[in-house]
């Protein structure tokens, strides 16, 4: 009976999406309606072909969806890094904004494609896959909801495709990290609720009484991102058959909401979620318990209570009242303490196992990611201070800060998690080549240093040139002067991107060969005690 209901709903959806594609008021809306229709039609055919199959009772962990997430993470990572490297060269050499790409492949269209590919496609798939893996192992329970996990995976990646195609067609809300239009946001909301249900259902059905700290970090990321996404994307569609919408809030209220969302997207998507990854995979790879479990609990509660207040520091010297931006600045400085508590906890987990840094390039990658987490969470509060912000804001210093965190913290901990997960998920005794992991480590590390250092130099130089005045109080430098002065550092930044991209490609090859060639170990499908 359930299959008949699904087929009826899917059939009606195919017809409705076809009508939307036919009557859509703009080209991008029609393209997206066709994508929805194709995805729904494929689901309809799959459901129809498997409707009568007798399915054995599920046993063990649901690892198929985790494997799919690992593959998607690696592939989307290469795509995101490739686009980022290309637009870095576009900034260094504007002639790469080719005439035939205008309107689709110029910097303005590709930049949000890059940010969404690395944050939401690469980072999001890593978080979904790793959270599904961790919550099952630490709960000693199969992922709740049957095929709900697969719906989350395919639904989330459909969101990525819709967002990416929308960017190159110019369909965005023009909000940082929240560019997709209203109907794509609605779809993501549905997928995210399903994600929360699958994660919470697994915790509710757990066989292990204790809820491990990594699950608290993952849960805070899921719940808070849901709240941020809904509030920041409150819009009124111009037409139900068009892609355009009007924001409910405007002016400084919209700016405040945007950066409450934007900074907490960093705080909960790129920090809390990846800390869940750190608190599971670092101890597992090091084969040591967390240095201080009590500190991890303090880290969690301090982080989630303080981070949510820090967003206004993005709006110093704007129409936002001073008290509001000062509040954000104060909470940002306070945030330094729990952040470093977490960094110390991660690093000290290696107590008694520091020798592994010489022999295990995977743990080396994880440790340097925690180091970058510490550096970024010192630099961020420092840059939020009003006097420092007057120099750094609107400059490339901010770009250097973001990428030292994103490439160093998020990228490296994800790479480490992938190197741990692939042998575990495909039942391999080891990785194909630790030597290739070492190559990846050094290429990525040197790439980050080149990127971040060049942006720190050019950002501070840019800020100083903007505020330089002559004896009569007139500005010395035109904006074009700063652009010309930055060119050498832009070339260095692009070369850093090439190194980081090369490392990611080596990783993909290594993971592929691990699945194909590494020695097989005994199959472990039964649910072991919580680990």
Automatic annotation (TrEMBL):
Pathway: Energy metabolism; oxidative phosphorylation
Top-rank taxon, per record: Bacteria
GO MF terms held by the record: cytochrome-c oxidase activity; heme binding; metal ion binding
Catalytic activity: 4 Fe(II)-[cytochrome c] + O2 + 8 H(+)(in) = 4 Fe(III)-[cytochrome c] + 2 H2O + 4 H(+)(out)
UniProt cofactor note: Binds 1 copper ion per subunit, denoted as copper B.
Listed Gene3D superfamilies: Cytochrome c oxidase-like, subunit I domain
GO cellular component, one term: plasma membrane
Enzyme class of the recorded protein, top EC level: translocase
Main location per the UniProt record: membrane
Binding site for heme b 2; high-spin: 401
NCBIfam families for the chain: ccoN
Name of the featured protein: cytochrome-c oxidase
